[in-house]
Each structure stands twice: as C-alpha cells, then as structure tokens.
Amino acid sequence: MYSVMDAATRHPKVALSRRALTDCLDFWAEAYPAIPEKTRGNIVITVTTVLDRFKHGRLNRAFCGRTTLVPEMTFGGAVIVLAMPTLTWNEDGVIAQQLFKFMWQRAVLSRNSLAPQHRERPVFLWSDEAQETVHSYDGEFLGLARESKCCPVYLTQSLPAYYAKMGGDNPRDDAHSLVGKFMTHVYHSNACPETNEFASRMIGKEVVRRHNFNAGNSRSFNEGMSAGENENSGSSSSYGSSHGQGYSLTSSSGSTSGEGNNWGNNRGRGSTDNVSFGYSESMEFVIEPGEFARILKTGGATNANIVTGIWFQSGRVFQASGGNMMLRRFAQ
C-alpha cells in the first residue's frame, strides 16, 4: 500500500490538486482501516460483486482496456451502434448498454460548453426494445434533450413493459412520467388495455354532438248509436154541491196519455302526427381504447403489407384531421 501511495504522490496519472491527493491518501491510510471489520467486509463484498463483471469477459474487453471509441465522436457525425444484444449477452448486454448510454447522455447534455462545431450538429438516440435498457437518468435526460439538439426515440411493446423494468418504489408513476415527456407518439395495433387506455387519455377528449329524432302517428275512430222511448198518462176529477135558494151539482173528470220514441247514431274519426328532433353534447375520447385493437392494420399479406398507426403530437393541429392526431399508413 505504501508503494502505491508513494507512486501516486510522485507520478500521478491524472492531474489532481494537492488537497485532493491528500484526502485520497488520508482515506485509505486512516479512515478506511478505522471502519469496523464487519462493516468494511460488507462494503468490500458489495463493491466487488458489482465490479466483478468488469474483471473478465465481454465487459472487461469493452470497458477496461484501450479504446478507440468515446461518446463525443457522435458530435462529429459518427453513428454509434451498440452490438450488445440482450438475448445473447444477457445481463452483460443490459449493463453494457445502460453504461454507454448513460455516458453518452451526460456528454450530450454537457456539449453546450464545447466549441460551436461540436454543439451545433443535431444528434439522436434510437433505442429499440427500450424497456430493456431504461434507467432512472432517462427521465432527466428527456427533459433537457431538446436544448442540446438531441432527438430521443424509444420503442417498446407496451406500457407495462416499462413498469416491470423501471424498478423503484413507484415504477408505474415513473414510467408515465418518462413516456409523458415525449412530444410525439406513434401507436400501432395493441391488445394491452393499459397501453390503449393511456393512449386514449394522452390524445384526449373532444365535444361530440349527437343528434336525436322522434316521429309518431296516431289514428282514432269511434262509432255509436242511441235509442230511447217514453210514455206518460194521467187523470183528474172534481165534485161539488151547494144548498140554498137553489140546488146545483157539478161533476168533471178527464184523463191524458202520450207515448214517444227517439233514436240516433253517431260516428267520428281523427288522426294526429308529431315530429321532434334535437341534439345533445358530451365530452368523449377522440379514440376509444378498443379502437387501437380493432381498426389498426398489422401488415402481412392480408393487409397488403400495410401497417396503420395513430400519430399523435402535442401542441400540433394536423390539417388532415383538424386535431392533434391522425391515422397514418406505413409500408411494412
């Protein structure tokens, strides 16, 4: 250890201030040995386990030897392809791509301090199956990428794929925050309800006017007959007498009777017609979630090798649709 410290003091490989060199030597000579043995052992195991992959194999060859490749080469027009497929490199492929992507993102965000010829060229980050190499720094990078003239393009199968790979305490919220920072979205046929519902909410709602119409007709008919009969009869009589100078006797009687009949019939007919119409307004999704699995073509011979997708762009009004989205056709 003394030999290493002596060499670092006499012939440092990087430019260090005297204070930084002194702090480094003090840590290894004083602070680190003072840590309790069990705690120090846990630290050593944790660090060496993570870094062991870089001591041998692919990661050692890619990152721990001499190199002719640095992220800043992209500012000169280089297109850097990471031929480290996760299906063959497995965990090494994920770690390698995440590491290089992180270094490239840091270089892009700091390019504004470089000479004009290195900060004016537009650059892009293309990540297929992006859920395999997504990490916590992506969200911060996406928020600042446009200022550094970088266009990130992430492709994934579904939104839950991000949930599974994001990790952390709130992977769902982190995934939504990440996807929400992309200003342009292209949605193809998808059977994932979570993804389709998110896409519907992202595109938004609009006022929909629904017309209604009512028509009715009624007919009525009535017919009737009335008949009646009446009869009446009666009699009256009176009798009187008087005595005096003379004698008189009066008597009268009589009777009346009658009979009548009446009859008739009536008939009537009527009809009414009524018509009403109007409309109602409501806020509805521009595209319902089910439409993404129902109306979009998936290519192949059945669809003449044509794939359709929904192109959404925030803050833009497409002339073809009059809204912030439109249906587009892509040759497979």
What does this structure look like?
The strands form three sheets. This protein has a three-stranded antiparallel beta sheet with strand order 3-6-7, with no helix packed on it. Strand 4 and strand 5 (247-285) form a beta hairpin. The chain is α+β, with helices and mostly antiparallel strands and 332 residues long. Among the domains are: 69-182, no CATH class; 205-212 and 273-331, no CATH class. The chain has helices at residues 2-10, 18-34, 37-51, 57-63, 86-89, 91-109, 116-119, 137-144, 159-166, 171-180, 193-203, 291-294; strands at residues 123-127, 150-154, 184-187, 205-243, 247-285, 306-313, 325-331. The protein contains twelve helices and seven strands.
The poorly predicted ranges are: none
Widest beta sheet: strand line-up: 3-6-7
Number of strands: 7
Give the integer mean of the pLDDT values: 85
Strand-residue fraction? 25-35%
**Structural category:** alpha+beta
The number of helical elements comes to: 12
End-to-end separation in angstroms reads 62 Å
**What is the succession of H and E elements?**
HHHHHHHEHEHHEHEEHEE
Give the biggest sheet: 3 strands, antiparallel
Using only C-alpha atoms, the radius of gyration works out to 49 Å
Helix content: 25-40%
Which shape, going by the Cα principal axes? elongated
